[in-house]
Design brief:
Blueprint lengths: L3 E7 L5 H15 L6 E7 L11 H9 L15 H4 L2 E4 L2 H10 L7 E4 L17 H24 L2
Helix pairs in contact: 1-5, 2-5
The structure holds 4-nitrophenyl phosphate (4NP).
Amino acid sequence: MKPLRVLFVCLGNICRSPLAEGAARKLARLRGLEESFFFDSAATAAYHVGESYDPRVAAVLASHDALFEHTVRQIGPGDYRFFDWILGMDGENMRDLRARRPANATARLALVTEPWGGGRITDPYYQDDWACEQTYLELEDLLAGWLERWREAP
Ligand code: 4NP
């Protein structure tokens, strides 16, 4: 079976979406589901294109055994057809994602929190180191829920 393709999106692709991607990859690995999913992440903005994640994010991902190779990229029109799901982190991401959605888009767009009330994922970029850890834990919890949902109904 073809893997379910999921793209995580935030403003810069250096904090929240790589934390989500790292958590999703780790959970899939722990559950023996690496072949069932393809995860990637992207930015709405071009500020950090070509960089890797924020060093605070690298430290948190390493401490959770969730590091992966990452180069920041901006979302493009092809992503809306390649991916099955595109998950944003806050309302601004969702507005940007909808505004860029091409007419032939097939991906489903949702807030990462949508099945559990739809709150925003606070951006740790503007906060202290501990905020990255909290954001990772919040996202890992949400992604565990998404993995369950996707296994039942991709
Ligand atoms: P992210 O956080 O969207 O979670 O990656 C940000 C990263 C960079 C900036 C803003 C938010 N920035 O303004 O450069």
